[in-house]
């Protein structure tokens, strides 16, 4: 049966996905070190099962997969949820070991995690499932080390440049000036009081609501997932590192270059995009344009769902992912 037909069956079965408000304390909490920096991760499921790594989005952590991880584990997978550097319980003070954060750094972190923690040789290639920034990280990791990865499920992509080929090539001196001004701005901008204000007032609720279609006012766990890391003393420093890193990346680290590199892979792994129809942060039309430019990608849409569809529409999201993985297995 074609995957599109399978999706239609799933969507007809679940008309109103009232996903539960789950506890973020899933699995076993562990630490690992990347470049001598502490990285927190969670793990659940049988040790010999096919590995899935869950990669969170901006401001979130492995806790955000509260409604997904144990479901996937119950279906016979070994589940890892990693906190990217700067987020969750992972290191935020990099002590000069990493100057700026960007998707290349996180992809290196992810691939090193696969090499050192996930037993690919025994359990097979890894399945990557990302949300937003986590999706970008997953695709970047795929472009770097395709031999490690079986498939990628990406829930929206956070940079619109994914759908616009990079045409402008600035002179080297002009790029240096631009990068200097960006760094100057973020070093002068009062990020610390701003982060404190947002994380300690009702502003955080309004900010979170922008990533969801359904009301999140009573979801205390969700607020805890986001506010606790943001209240750490080094949170503003990590955010500054990310703002500079993502703003001054080379073109090779941006969406179009990553997609083009993946497209040219001799044994390109299949990629599924899942978009929330009511996503206000990264509108659906960008996903549709991306598919039009790259028809080898697969796209499915979840109605009545926003940017964090894996959390607010977890029932249908989980079923779509499991059907996708089953379809890949049976099609080979």
Give the CA-based shape.
Answer: globular
Radius of gyration: 19 Å
CATH homologous superfamily, by name? Alpha/Beta hydrolase fold, catalytic domain
| Helix-strand topology string | HEEEHEHHEHEHHHHHHEHEHH
| Spatial strand sequence of the major β-sheet | 1-2-4-3-5-6-7-8
Largest sheet: 8 strands, mixed
Q: Tell me the helix content.
A: 40-55%
Low-confidence stretches: none
Number of helices: 14
Mean pLDDT figure? 90
Architecture per CATH nomenclature, i.e. the level-2 architecture: 3-Layer(aba) Sandwich
Summary?
The protein has 332 residues and is an alpha/beta fold. It is built from 14 helices and eight strands. The protein has a single domain, classed as Rossmann fold (3-Layer(aba) Sandwich), CATH 3.40.50.1820.
Describe the structure.
There is one protein chain. By secondary structure, this protein is of the alpha/beta class. It has a single domain (about 5-170, about 250-330), classed as Rossmann fold. Helices cover about 45% and strands about 15% of the residues. A hairpin with a 2-residue loop joins β1 and β2. α1 packs antiparallel against α14, α6 packs antiparallel against α10 (about 235-245) and α7 crosses α10. The chain is globular.
